[in-house]
Amino acid sequence: MESAKEVGPSSLQHFLSQSIASWDPEHQVNEIPASSYCIRRITKDLCSICKYVIKIYILILDSKPAPGICVVPDNEDMTKIYALITGPFDTPYEGGFFLFLIRCPPEYPLMPPKVKLMTTGNGTVRFNPNFYSNGKLLDNQEVTAKLKRRDFDE
């Protein structure tokens, strides 16, 4: 007969740290290096974002300031991307700076990137029900489930 596994603070702490590492791009380390296709696709997508911002500036905003979107990959790890978005004028978010950390898995684009809102005031500020207080972005399945339950407290 196999003995029962001890459950205590250390095993709970290990479980929680593993759970955080599984979604949190800040603590996630890609154990498999990204393929050259993955890196090329990230580069292509970043260029597309830049072209889109320029297009908005030229076609839509004409002489107004460019929208506050800045997307930059990490110097040492192309799969780790930082995005800074400033709050749009004439909105409650005006004057705000919203920093996101995006981590593309080695299987990108077949697997979606993980996104974390870093501007949370250590979990004290929540800007939107699509973000947990720790910065985790809810995926579509989580959003649908929460809408059905009308549960946005977590």
UniProtKB/TrEMBL annotation:
Q: Which GO terms describe its molecular function?
A: ATP binding; cysteine-type endopeptidase inhibitor activity; ubiquitin conjugating enzyme activity
EC number per UniProt: 2.3.2.23
Instruction: Write down the PANTHER family for this protein, in alphabetical order.
Output: (E3-INDEPENDENT) E2 UBIQUITIN-CONJUGATING ENZYME, UBIQUITIN-CONJUGATING ENZYME E2 Z
Q: Can you say what this protein is called?
A: Ubiquitin-conjugating enzyme E2 Z
* Species of provenance: Schistosoma mekongi
Q: Name one GO cellular component term.
A: nucleus
- Taking every annotated instance into account, which residue ranges of this chain make up the domain UBC core? 37-154
Domain of life of the organism in this record?
A: Eukaryota
Q: What is its main location?
A: cytoplasm
Pfam families associated with the record = UQ_con
Which major enzyme category is it?
A: transferase
Cellular compartments annotated: Cytoplasm; Nucleus
Kindly state which keywords UniProt assigns to this record, in alphabetical order: Apoptosis, ATP-binding, Cytoplasm, Nucleotide-binding, Nucleus, Transferase, Ubl conjugation pathway
The Gene Ontology biological process annotation of the record reads: apoptotic process; negative regulation of apoptotic process
Question: Organism classification, top ranks?
Answer: Eukaryota, Metazoa, Spiralia, Lophotrochozoa, Platyhelminthes
